[in-house]
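ok posting inputs for the nicotinamide-adenine-dinucleotide job
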Amino acid sequence: MEPTGSIPRRAPATGELVAEFGAGTAHDVNAAVGAARTAFDEGPWPRMSGLSRAEVLLRLADLIAANASLLARLDAEEVGKPLRLAEGDIAGAVGLTRYAAGLATQMHGSTYTNHDADFTGLVLRQPAGVAGLITPWNFPALILCQKLPFALAAGCTVVVKPSEFTSSSTLEIARLAAEAGLPDGVLNVVTGDGQPGQALAEHTAVDVLSFTGSTVTGRKVLDASKTNLKRVSLELGGKAASIVFDDADLDDALDGVVYGVFFNQGECCVSASRLLVQESIADEFLEKVAEAAERLRVGQPFDPATDVGAMIHPGHLEKVLQYVSVGAQQGATVLTGGHRLTGPAHDDGLFVAPTVLDGVRPDARVFREEIFGPVLSVTRFGDADEAVRLANGVEYGLANTIWSKDIDKVLDVGKALQSGTVYVNTTIDGAPQMPFGGYKASGVGREMGQAGFEEFTELKSINIRTGKRRGTLGLGAGPAATD
Ligand code: NAD
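and the output
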């Protein structure tokens, strides 16, 4: 069914119209879920061998790799991020899809023969059913591939609702999946804004829902999903800290702090938007951070020299700048940046100068709230206990980074941090094998790794008695009714 309207997409770096997406409705979601339901209940995909599913996924990975430059271009244009970052995202998507293909061949349960002598327990791991996947705009293809190949590897059928700002690469990957041999009805995409997302979360024929987006929307998704108590996993917002101790390799830490916050224009859930720096080194270190921020080249995604791209839409640009004002009102000093960039290279785009706010108090909004832009909030600490208290003193718990060469300190602090991911002497790093997700308001469940795969499966216990059982209902010693 054709959507009733359309959503224009203007490139945030130039203002040019670059795409138009169908404005899907609840009606479209219903049709897509119906197709996925039929494909799950009657189609070959969940019934195929793991090896056959893996073959399709490996073909899909090859096709994504073969179309990498197109996919990277679409994401760079629609997100406003530097092309070379988008190319990295597509390479990541290929790796995730290949890794998930391997999981399809390894799907297994367990067997128990150590209870009664005549008892055998089989624990089956089966596909969960129809999976709804809702994705955000900051890493369109990459986040899709943190979910889609895992759901497919498990034998689920899928309905995807990509972000209304960045749907092109998802539509392209769906086309490639058909080319790879995915049967009809297994993968369905409904474009549109929050309304079709809400309809997907509410739909009673969806068995499992995997959502990535803001904590505000995550709460709505959780509420909507109560219709049939579907399983929900939520990958939500963050307020990560870079914790720099005085015994760190300070050159590495400097690179990491700058990369950690300005990567992807700060529009990254694990963006290390808080710098916690040990007092003894703070002044000197901060001077270097501010200098490095000023050296970053902010500009057009397709200019190979660009480090930092554009904000996703005008409202978001305003929100980011508003946070800088709020930070200053609440006592922070703007060391650098804090304004929109104008001039010939920037006039038509939504560019914010990389910003460093010093002297941020732990009760300030810029310390506690997700800004999702190129803004670093700096707070000083005395010792490791204080660093941990500060890092944990926010409602989020997605990721944190430790910079130190003291292994004892790294392990103690790493264990005490309340976040699903801890980076040590590196940042925004990882591998498809590593589960990813949040503590506290950063989410529920995990994606990637074995744990991410298992989110798309159900366990079934089959309890088998191999001897006759009499009187098990307390009905006396007489013959069982079925004798
Ligand atoms: P968002 O919550 O506005 O939107 C995410 C998706 O949900 C979009 O597809 C949107 O159309 C859809 N949506 C909106 N309203 C909905 C509703 N009521 N029901 C169902 N779906 C609805 O988030 P965004 O602005 O696209 O992305 C930025 C946010 O995502 C940030 O908070 C960021 O931290 C978070 N994020 C988290 C991770 C992670 O892995 N934890 C990764 C990337 C982004």
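notes: The longest strand covers residues 119-127. The chain has two domains: 6-236+442-461, 241-424.
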